[in-house]
Design brief:
The protein has 183 residues and is of the alpha+beta class. Helices cover 55% and strands 18% of the residues. The chain contains 4 helices and 7 strands; from the N terminus they run ααββααβββββ. Helix 2 runs antiparallel to helix 3. The radius of gyration is 20 Å and the shape is elongated. The two termini are 29 Å apart.
């Protein structure tokens, strides 16, 4: 994932710098505006992979709650927040023909549809993050486990868990993994 984000980051820098040199500041704003959420996501992924994140936990009568690092959450939500205004500028000025980032009408159409999905997904992510109080959590209760990400929550009963392990079958490189095996 970091390689893909780095490649997209490099493309954004190239196009943003090119448009600034050419004096096309609207295109530069959009190009660099698309770059910022990617840079924030890349920074968040780098923090996790380097082990500089802290797991937050709390405990009460209903069970234990595990939440991700606050900086990681804020970087994710900030990425969503940046996509919305940049995406709206991109969509608006591409549709009225003032944004000259594409040479073909087909390229414009595909980019506008993709940006519409990005804006709608970002709005949904921000609303969900606001309602949930973050980007996700794991709640351990006497009856089972609730695993929530930014969009959905999955509940698993302890009866459905066969084993608890410290490594996954596909040998992914993880820090302090806890793998719950279901039947």
């Amino acid at each position: 994932m970091a390689v893909a984000l780095s490649a997209l980051f490099a493309v954004g820098v190239f196009f943003g710098g090119r448009y600034i040199i050419l004096g096309q500041f609207l295109e530069a704003f959009v190009g660099l505006g698309i770059l910022l959420p990617l840079a924030l996501a890349l920074f968040a992924v780098q923090r996790v992979s380097s082990g500089r994140t802290v797991l937050r936990s709390s405990h009460d009568a209903t069970g234990s709650l595990l939440k991700s690092d606050k900086t990681f959450e804020m970087l994710g939500l900030l990425s969503f927040a940046v996509v919305i205004p940049v995406g709206l500028v991109f969509i608006t000025f591409t549709l009225i023909g003032d944004l000259e980032m594409f040479t073909s009408r087909r390229g414009q159409s595909i980019a506008v549809v993709a940006m519409c999905f990005a804006v709608l997904g970002s709005i949904a992510g921000l609303v969900s993050g606001w309602r949930r109080g973050g980007v996700g959590y794991v709640r351990l209760t006497p009856s089972g486990i609730d695993v929530a990400d930014i969009f959905r929550t999955e509940s698993v009963s302890w009866d459905d868990i066969d084993d608890v392990d410290d490594h996954s079958d596909d040998n992914k490189k993880t820090r302090k993994a806890v793998v719950l095996r279901r039947h």
